[in-house]
Amino acid sequence: MTDVNDVTNAANATTETVETDAGPARITWHKAKKPRLVLAVSHGAGGGIEARDLKALAAVLPAHGVTVARVEQPWRVAGKKLAPAPKTLDLGWRGIWPALAEPGLPVVSGGRSAGARVACRTATELGARAVLALSFPLHPPGRPEKSRAAELLGSGVPTLVVQGGNDPFGNPGEFPEGPYELVEVPHGDHGFAVPKRAEITQEEAVAVITDAVVEWTGSLG
């Protein structure tokens, strides 16, 4: 099993700075030997690309023909603690896109939490092959009436949602029917952490994520 804690030190990891209209962004590439897709994943509003799910995908997916690009939005590169408005996040993602598409492969647009929202909002205009939405924030905690379902339902491309069973931003049972697939990580919170009393370990929970994404990306060609 790949040690996801060592993924940032992997021999095939390279870093690229990209200028965007929202400021410099940064891409950490984890390249497959014979890639057929690029999976671009960005972080949420409260964390970075060291999130357990993004690290795990970078460790596992290249062996399955998928180059993983972990993207740091300009506000994170600048050292700011608070994410900007959605339109600024979208601006940064648009500016990063040419670098993601440069290898000439289909690009799956993805991210966790706020990054998933960006991927959904911009997928059609950018020509994404599909969207991977990790911990999609369906609504603010305790505010189900503030639904963001329209963003998810409007992605316009094949979409996979991977959601923790105990995510306060929307558990799987709260999601509306729609043209997307949904995989539940049992007992997972918004960061896919599972309590010690759960019947699955943290390692097994992360494997649910990577196994689902491996299978799904395999169906994309």
TrEMBL record:
Hydrolase in keyword set: yes
Pfam families: Abhydrolase_11
PANTHER family per UniProt: TESTIS DEVELOPMENT PROTEIN PRTD, TESTIS-EXPRESSED PROTEIN 30
Record keywords, A-Z: Hydrolase
One MF annotation (Gene Ontology) recorded for this entry: hydrolase activity
Region (Disordered): 1-22
Record-annotated KANL3/Tex30 alpha/beta hydrolase-like domain positions: 38-216
Biased composition regions of type Low complexity, renumbered to the chain: 1-21
Taxonomic superkingdom: Bacteria
Protein name: Alpha/beta family hydrolase
